[in-house]
Amino acid sequence: MGTSEVFLILSPPVIAVGMLKYRSDYRRYGKTTVLGVILLLAAWFMPMCVLGYAIPLFATPRTPPQYLGYGLMVLGVGLCIVPMLHFSSRMVVGRDASRLVTTGVYRFSRNPQYVTYGLFVLGYAMTGRAVMAYVAVALYLVVAHLTALVEEEHLERVFGEEYRRYKARTPRYLLF
Prior knowledge:
176 residues, single chain, mainly alpha
């Protein structure tokens, strides 16, 4: 059994514990605790470990899908910077919830960071030929979606009708 498979086996319990603690913190305190951040990062780390051990980070592209994969990686990282410019580091980890951001790229997606980083992860998977890499993409999608659900629940409690109006007019990801 390879390292990638070990991380795959460990992923479900680590992701479950991380997501449950993250959700519990937001429900109880309205923000996440230090332990909540650590467990959430562990949940996000697992798909990356599966992916990282499934294929090397850089290899010379030889096929059109591999070239496309590197292109998606560059596009994903480049676009990921745009939504982050709307936040200070305090807002990113849920410490400053004084205002709801609905401008810029947030007009098109309620979770643009997850979409753009998802492009990176998909591109990374495309650079190799390992089935395990696509399993890692699926794990990433699960973690991103569960995180988005926790955050949406919290934002609805904090911003009420303002968030519900925003939610009604803006897709969770991009087109859906």
